[in-house]
Amino acid sequence: ESATTHFAAATHDDPADLRGWYLLAWAQSKDDGVAARETLSEAERRGPPQSADAWFYRGLAIHFDDAAEAINSYRQANAVRAREGMFYPQAILHLARARNQQMYASRTIDPFMESEAGLHQLIEQQHYGAYPYYLLSIAHRLAAEIYSGSAGTRDDSLVEYHYAQALEWARRGQQLDPTNDRPIAAEAECLESMGRLDEALEARTRAIESARRRWGRCESLHYRWRLNYWTGHLDAALADIEEHAACDPESVLYSHVYPALVMADMGDPEAARTRALDLARAMPTDALAIIWSAATLRLLGDAAQADELLAEYADKVDFTRGWEPQQSETWLRVLYAHCQSGDRLDELQTLADQTDAPWKLWGEAFFHTALWDLSAGNRAACVAELRRAHRSFDGEINYTYHARLLLVKMQQNSSWPTWNGVSWDDEVPGS
User: What is the pTM of this model?
Assistant: First the structure.
């Protein structure tokens, strides 16, 4: 709030200075997306930036909403500074971050070279300590995943090369600054991506022990509980979930959904079912809370109770309030109906495609379709929809994360979730 107040005062004192407008939009974006977009529109109305700093701050303001345009802003900042005979390390750093972001979302290799070149430049000139090593490790890991996804159509040796580079740069960053948790987290991400889950778990634990920032510890807990869950350390998984719940007290996933899933695997389906139902009772007018409560029941093998829950709350929920800006009233109504019937996916895809960022909604539609298919006994269809949800790449706190959570369990055990009694081996090929 103090940053917002400070930058708002700057726009009032000197409205012609676009730096203040862009910094205000950046500060507002943390808590108020609507206000941030209004401020950004006002800045854009006043004409293009005229200084390197203004271009850089514009990039910060739009970094997560429009990576391509943020990249253009960072390049402009670099160009202006270069004409002045100077170097702009901040712009180069954030340009690399945005290029990594593009690789993650688009699964294309094109952004890699610009990201790599900029990060090597920062490392050679010793800017920002271990942070460029962390970003370079991520860039190589993303490249490995991209090449892995096209195995057989490109040089498959590039997968092994980029994974090796990802591990090397993560470990070089640790050598440079052993107390920094970011390079350790990058190592953990790479090992998890390679399927080396026990090693990834060990690295995540080191990252948590080294974390100097609260959010760094919380971020690693977000991944460690899942690794504990996959590797069968269920008590540890539940403990991590409970600790992370304090990081994000408003997350229904950490308060209800994830604990219910672990409880079911621990052999206590009644406790799991109670935790799922408690979510609906705690938030009876929240459409998405009811949807998640029903989705958890479906995952727990109780489709009948999920249907009853959705029918009971259909006239009570408020469809005007989503959790994300792109979730309109129409979207929530159709999603709710889809969770009741399982037959509105085409309509959801049409609605998503009409938005500016359809990828932010695709994963949600595919994920809830997957749980409907699972509860109907069609495991193959469930897996197919989970893969589509994962490949929406909507972010590592959203459906890409949720889908991977379930997919790995299903890959580990063809009968999981065992309480549903549906195995891949039981299905007719092609069903």
Answer: 0.92
